[in-house]
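Example 3.
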Amino acid sequence: MPRAGLSWEKLIQAGAALADSEGFAALTLAALARQFDVKLASLYAHVRNSDDLKAGVALLALDLLAKWAESAVAGRAGKEAVVALAEAHRRFAGEHPGLFEAARFPLSAEQAAGSGGPRLARTMLAALRGYELSEADQVHAVRLLGSFFLGFSLLERSGSFAHSQPEPGQSWRRGLDALDVTFKNWKTT
Amino acid sequence: MPRAGLSWEKLIQAGAALADSEGFAALTLAALARQFDVKLASLYAHVRNSDDLKAGVALLALDLLAKWAESAVAGRAGKEAVVALAEAHRRFAGEHPGLFEAARFPLSAEQAAGSGGPRLARTMLAALRGYELSEADQVHAVRLLGSFFLGFSLLERSGSFAHSQPEPGQSWRRGLDALDVTFKNWKTT
DNA sequence: GCAAAAAACTAATATCATTAGGAAACCACT
DNA sequence: AGTGGTTTCCTAATGATATTAGTTTTTTGC
């Protein structure tokens, strides 16, 4: 019988798709083995263990998110850049729920350093260039922005906003307006 | 031989402690059975299944967080209330990492409705009473605040802030200052 | 075409979760 | 105190996932 032709990349790709369709919790070696019609143990030729697979998907998720962020910010500045960045985050959470969850899988220091995380941080810094903030304030602003993006997307997806009016999208835009004003008046506050 | 004297409450309590000390992922029926020196199957007299245990711990976590929030807000108003609420969240994440994670375990609609979640939301609304916001703006503000608390605590705990200066605590305070100003000037922005 | 490397397999072990059914402890009530 | 019923806990069996060791088979490079 011919080989299945697996590889690290194929497994991670399939794992990402599986996470998005079935949830990150459903991302198991056994499920992938079934999908490729291969015995479970065979996967160990390509992946160290289950956590290695999850870390791989996490790295892919961070890379993709960083990519989305980069193309959102490209060619924009000020509020326009911030809003585009925000939409990239929120759309990512909505269209790739599994990857969005995967992106919070704990990584080793080396893995994290080489991940899309730092790239994402740099992109967020770039988006804030139009606001004329000090070095330290830029970091504060990126953290504030990142916290809002992540927290809002999580709460929205978990249904925490589902039982109060008005619709979450309004709060989202209102929050972005507020952050824009905050960045514009940063020194004075 | 005498009985172990288990109960739903004891299991949930022990589960909460276990989650905090070993991580939410380590919260398993098998681990609790070992801890109480009881056979794994015996736990099914008190808990429907593994998810039931996790949901129970999640409910305890939300209750405790709501309690912390309530006592933080009690007797305070305006920025003082917001800051106290914020510190409650951040301390909770730091002192109860397992419960903080458990609080994001997906609950059924009925479970969520009876959880500390709605109480927490009401408490946050109360904390904003001093700012004179319209009904809808209060909701927007609560969502903005909640997103910041959750997102910041997550990113801080995950180490996302560890590789940039200044220290996260500064960004935290700076973010709260900014939110306070935002709420004060809400109508004008 | 052959030897080495890589990929896949079988087999064994461990942990966790779950259900079914039986035994023993506990409680309420006489 | 004894007895009946309820509840707790147990044993036993099954199935899913993960992991390692050792073996076979395919592929590939010379």
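Chain B touches chain A through 42 residues (CB under 8 Å). Chain B has a mean pLDDT of 97.
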